[in-house]
Each structure stands twice: as structure tokens, then as C-alpha cells.
Amino acid sequence: MPDDWSRRELVDSLVSAERRVDFVIPLAQLPRLKSSLASSDGEARGRASFRRSLGAAVADIQVQAGPMLTCQRCLQPIEWPVTSDSQVALVADAAEADRVADGLETYLVENDRVSVRDLVEEELLLALPLVPKCAAGSECARSVESGGRRELDRDPPIDVQTPFAQLGELLKRDQ
Ligand SMILES: [Zn+2]
């Protein structure tokens, strides 16, 4: 079924049936991610598999995407390739999260139900940088490196020295 990824289903049934969902999700269908994107073109592809491991409900999420972000230096769109492969424990509360084995991420499930869309969106959000910037060595990075240094040399002395310069003038007049 093409829309398998959008349905919220009971974690228990997903895990008991060891469901596997191959998905292609348009990024425009990921509302929390959308606000970070320069453009909602593109899609996330991959596979989600559910299983039980040591009593915990676990989702194995493999996802690939190339979301377009906005460089926070030059404000141009940049593609941010994401390839992630995670084991996510589906937990009902914080106490359960504390008992999760090392190496597993945790995802807090609401009302015992989860959708592949929710899980994929979470993975992508985790993979995105807080402040996206063009790569080091790009034209954007080089121009800001030199520009930034010039600004440092120029700006502070004006503010800091003006009061003393005026004081100097006053002292000279008094003598
Ligand atoms: Zn840039």
C-alpha cells in the first residue's frame, strides 16, 4: 500500500507482525521538518522494520534524503545529504526510556501508536545541523573568513577609544 508510511498504527501490532515498510515520503509531507527547509522539493527513501528486542519495541530505520537547507552565512540554498541507519526503541514514557539498551535511540510514542512518517521525520531532524553553512573551502566560507577579520580590526576601537580620546582633549585644555 502506497500510504503505509502515513498511518499511525499500534506499536504492538507493528512489532508483533514484524512489519517492514519501504517508503518514499515527499519532504513536503513532513510538517516539522518543512520549516527548516529552503525548498520542500525532494523525498526521503528507505525502509522501516519493526521487531521486539529484549522486551523493547524497536524500529530499525534506514533513510536517505537530500533536503535543501539555507546557508546561514550567504543565505543560499545548499543540499544536505543525509544517510542514516538507526535502531530506535519505541517507549511510552521517561521511565521506559531509562531502561533502553545502549546504542538505541528512543522515541516517545503517544497513545500507543506511531507512523513511519513520524519516525522518519525524527531521524531527519536529528541529522540536520542547527546552523547549516556552506562547506569549508567554499566561496561562501572564504569570503566570510576574510570579511570577518576586517570587521574585528575596525569596529571595537571606535567604541572603546572614543571616551578616552575625549578625556585626553579635556586634560589638554586644562593644562
Ligand atoms: Zn553559504
Give the quaternary arrangement of the chains: single chain
Q: Identify low-pLDDT runs.
A: 150-163
Number of structurally distinct domains: 2
Helical percent range? 25-40%
- Would you count the extended β strands for me? 9
Taken from the alpha-carbon principal axes, the silhouette is elongated
Largest sheet: spatial strand order = 2-3-4-7-8
Major sheet attributes? 5 strands, mixed
Distance separating the two termini: 92 Å
- SS field, number of helical segments: 5
- Structural class from helices and strands? alpha+beta
Averaged pLDDT: 86
Order of helices and strands: EHEHEEEEEHEEHH
Radius of gyration based on Cα positions: 25 Å
Bound ligands: zinc ion
- Strand residue content: 25-35%
Task: Report on the architecture of this protein.
This protein is α+β, with helices and mostly antiparallel strands and 175 residues long. The protein has 2 domains: 4-127, no CATH class; 136-175. The chain contains 5 helices and 9 strands; from the N terminus they run E-H-E-H-E-E-E-E-E-H-E-E-H-H. It has helices spanning 11-16, 31-34, 94-98, 116-127, 139-174; strands spanning 9-10, 20-26, 43-53, 56-65, 68-70, 77-79, 82-91, 105-108, 113-114. A 5-stranded mixed sheet has the order 2-3-4-7-8. Strands 1-9 form a two-stranded antiparallel ribbon. A hairpin with a 6-residue loop joins strand 5 and strand 6. The longest helix has 36 residues, at 139-174. The radius of gyration is 25 Å and the shape is elongated. The protein starts with 8 loop residues before the first strand and ends with a helix. Zinc ion (ZN) binds at residues 71, 73-74, 76, 133-134, 140.
